[in-house]
Input
Amino acid sequence: MADLERRPGGRTSMPLGSAQRRALLLGGDVLVLVAVCTLALRLGAARSDWEWDAEFVLEHAAWYGVLGGLWVALAWINGLYDPRRAPDRWASAVLSVKVSAQVLLAWAVAYFVPPPWTIVRHVVVFFTLGAALVMPLWRLTYAVLFSQPAFRRRLLIVGAGAAGREAVDVVRAEAAHGFDVLGFVDDAPHLCGAEVAGVSVVADRSGLARAARELGATELVLAITRGMHGDLLAAVLELRERGLAVTPMPVLFEEVTGRVPVEHVGDHWAVALPLDGPEARGFYRPAKRALDVALGAAGLALLALAFPPAALLIRRSSPGPVLFRQRRVGRGGREFVLLKLRTMVTDAEPAGPVWAARDDPRVTPVGRWLRRARLDELPQAFNVLRGDMSVVGPRPERPEFVERLAAQIPFYRARHAVRPGLTGWATIHEGYAGSSRDALRKLQRDLYYIKHQSLFLDAYILVRTAGIVLRLQGR
Output
């Protein structure tokens, strides 16, 4: 994606993909952190009258990894490596300072725990102050430099139907800094020269090659959900031979949003839906199960501490059982009984199953706090240990809703390819589903997770979930 290309007028362009932008961010951060850590050690040596030489640097080299690694990890958790957020200059600067403050806070806590090696406090203070001052400047430089037209991907969208319009919408909403939408290519006679979603239809299939050349396109987006005409395929292949990237719309949508657009998959289902992901082979499955057992056991220990006071408060807030049992659909469509601490009044659904709602009046005052801290989910540690659930995965849905949603949403049952989870990619991004539309967005997230699941992604979701719990942002 980053090959040098000539744009109209002889200007050179180097369009950057999401992975390349993320690599630039990370590489720049590492260089800044190495420089800041070196300066912190130098100032620390001067303050303590230590001799500054190569031996001193080698002796304290581990702190480059400790302080720099901690900063990068916290930056990742806070979303500083999301290419969609990086161009927001103010947000990036504020988050950089916030991450530096978190490093200082983490060190302040760790200071009271005997470490395997020691370093005086002023070096850490110098490091965090330096990072708080220099990192926002680097992030500002990145935002200004890599938002220039030369680094943006210049898209020509083949197909001006619903999928094409959706491609334009998501690019504008979530990644406008990284893309220029040049126009649509569509064979419909009534669209010739017209505008669709604010973008001109610049050619039909016979004029695709000419339009791509004249407009300086670097990428074709195939927003055609059914069969492709032979002449159009020939034109696409010709442009691909000339070096243009060719991307199916579902792949672009997934890259930009972190969701799989199931309603626009069409003939591209093989590249948009999970087939044989890492959960089906290799080291990942046993490693994930070992993690589930370890975290499930830790959850039971925490439940043992929280249960007595929680049970007392639940009983005092409203009559009824402390534990709430409900049938959910798990892996392979098998049903199981999910356990929770009761947060609603008894008989909360006299007319049958209904969606949960924000500020739901059925939730008791005690239940509201339990939900915010996610303590109501602790009994599901039993479900995890029994193998009904995993710690990370799509949230399990009720059988009544599964039947309804499977009839409304394409590929809904694909989420049952893996064990459901206590938390997941959809949970940290979308929260609870309160409608069929919410369920569609969560499904899009769930399928993205199933396609890309890994121990790294699981760890990221767990850390993000911990942040939600600590901020009492549960619902």
